[in-house]
Design brief:
two-stranded antiparallel ribbon; 155 residues; mainly alpha; 8 helices
Length: 155
């Protein structure tokens, strides 16, 4: 039966590393990180995203997801660096720009957040972080609406 595990004595511990490197890649660690992030295990998620970056140091997705984890861990400086690197690697990807704007709002730097919003262009779909079912999500049509949204108590 294919689902019965086999236990084998492996005399060389390096053999396990060799085998795991044949089956694990950047995407494996991105998936692991995503699962940890969804369960709010942000430290574990950050470790997985860093591991993905070992496999591909130019992964915009890994830098973006790492930045989101670091925001959740309130490590805003390193988060900013990771998100800037993600945006640099893939300037057309809106996710790192969105996460940077959120980070700037958290850090009280509304001018930087507004600059990103103006660069992306209105209308914007905005929502508080870590909500389910779209609660608090709004369409923002201009800078005045964005300023009002950011001032709401859930931020």
């Amino acid at each position: 039966a294919a689902n019965i595990p086999e236990f084998v004595n492996v005399p060389d511990p390096q053999a396990i590393r060799t085998i795991s490197h044949q089956f694990l890649d950047e995407h494996s660690f991105l998936r692991i990180g995503y699962e940890h992030y969804q369960n709010q295990y942000f430290e574990d998620a950050a470790k997985a995203y860093r591991k993905a970056l070992e496999y591909n140091p130019n992964s915009s997705d890994a830098y973006n997801e790492l930045g989101a984890c670091l925001i959740a861990l309130n490590q805003l400086g390193p988060a900013r660096d990771a998100l800037r690197r993600s945006a640099q690697l893939d300037p057309q990807n809106p996710r790192p720009h969105n996460n940077l704007a959120y980070l700037y709002c958290l850090a009280g730097n509304l001018d930087e957040a507004l600059a990103i919003a103006n660069r992306i262009g209105y209308p914007l779909m905005v929502r508080p972080s870590y909500v389910l079912g779209g609660r608090g999500m709004e369409v923002v049509h201009d800078e005045e609406m964005l300023r009002h949204y950011v001032a709401k108590p859930w931020k």
